[in-house]
Amino acid sequence: MSTLNVLRYSALALGVFVGVKTDFSLKSEAAKKSEENEYAAKLKLIEQAKEQYAKLHAKKEAPKTSGEKFDLEDPNLDYASVILSAVDSLKQ
Hints:
This protein has helices at 2-56, 79-91. By secondary structure, the chain is an all-alpha fold. The chain has one domain (2-91). The longest helix is centred in the N-terminal third of the chain and has 55 residues, at 2-56.
């Protein structure tokens, strides 16, 4: 009878130990997954903030010139149009 009680309580203790160990590992895994989800959500918010900042603070493009290239050595150069285009580019 004594051997039967030893085996019974040993099995009970082993079952309790395995149950506690399993519970601890499942809780640990759930906590880790929760932290990863929070981290991913924060990264997503950071990316959205970067996109919004880029939209609000977009770099202004350089003002386009008339596209005409002029050669100062050209004898037929219209100096008035060159000066006016330079003044217009400074106003922008």
